[in-house]
Amino acid sequence: MTEARPDKGKTNGKARLLEAACTLAQHSSFDEITIDEIVKAARLSKPTFYYHFPGGKEELRTELTRCGCLHDTPTPDTRESILEATLRVFARSGVSAATMEDIAAEAGVSRGALCWHFHCKDDLLKALVEHTSPSYTPVREEIDQIEQELLNGISLDDKTILRRLVGAFYDVFTSDSDLARLPVLLLHTHPEVAHLLANRIVKGRRKITEYVRKRQEEGSFRADIDASFFVQIIVTPFAMRAFCHELYNFLPFAQFSREQAIEQLVELLLHGMLRRVSTLCSS
């Protein structure tokens, strides 16, 4: 029985692709090298590339690492950097006016590297929406932490809880103002995406609304105040800072420090929300 031998051409093809990629990686970041550049350097075709590396560039990366051509060390997350740059460009120029060239320049990558990760603006937008899940915002983290402390038997009064929640909202709208403006930026060009993000925002605040309703049922908070409106009042001053930054700077309270802003808002909220038992004084 004759033993099957590997096809010499195919074996050489893989070796040529590895050699070409290794050579290119000596002059550029592997993430910035495109498949087109690799096949051109190897004098082969794209179908040949995918024949040898059906998993694409990541499979090639693994093979190059195994061969010692690339170091098996963490590299900056190019995809993450591109998404952050996309958010900045969208916030600055608007979704319609932003170009792939603008985004590549903002991210500090080549147009080829950008298109390797994302083929078009719609791909970028889809990934950006998935990337901006509210589950990982400071507000979500603070809510989870408060819940855990309460489950562990730690006593937290209303003022302490509100101070922590208000502080988390302050931080979100201060550090992630571009993200906060994203639903508004998409309202006219991508209304369905704006609606999706708005629903996520509302869902993310639901536990705070439930906390307010619980305190109303217990008789500590006034029952005539709508709980969801109460939560919106917490958000509004800091949302103004994100959406109308230039106008906000002219307002008297714009110079408040973080602690001053939190203290003022919490005192105002509690003054209007706490139930007070009226007493009749007899003469």
Structure description:
The protein has 283 residues and is mainly alpha-helical. The protein folds into 3 domains: 10-67, Orthogonal Bundle (Arc Repressor Mutant, subunit A), CATH 1.10.10; 78-131, Homeodomain-like (Arc Repressor Mutant, subunit A); 134-273, Tetracycline Repressor, domain 2. The chain has helices spanning 8-25, 35-42, 46-52, 57-67, 78-93, 100-107, 111-117, 121-131, 138-151, 158-175, 177-185, 191-204, 206-217, 227-243, 245-248, 258-273. Helix 9 runs antiparallel to helix 10 and helix 13 runs antiparallel to helix 14 (227-243). The longest helix is centred in the N-terminal third of the chain and has 18 residues, at 8-25. It is elongated and about 85 Å long. It starts with 7 loop residues before the first helix and ends in a 10-residue tail after the last helix. Residues 1-10 and 278-283 have low confidence and may be disordered.
Nutshell version of this structure?
By secondary structure, this protein is mostly helical.
Task: Please render the helix and strand layout as text.
Elements: H1 8-25, H2 35-42, H3 46-52, H4 57-67, H5 78-93, H6 100-107, H7 111-117, H8 121-131, H9 138-151, H10 158-175, H11 177-185, H12 191-204, H13 206-217, H14 227-243, H15 245-248, H16 258-273
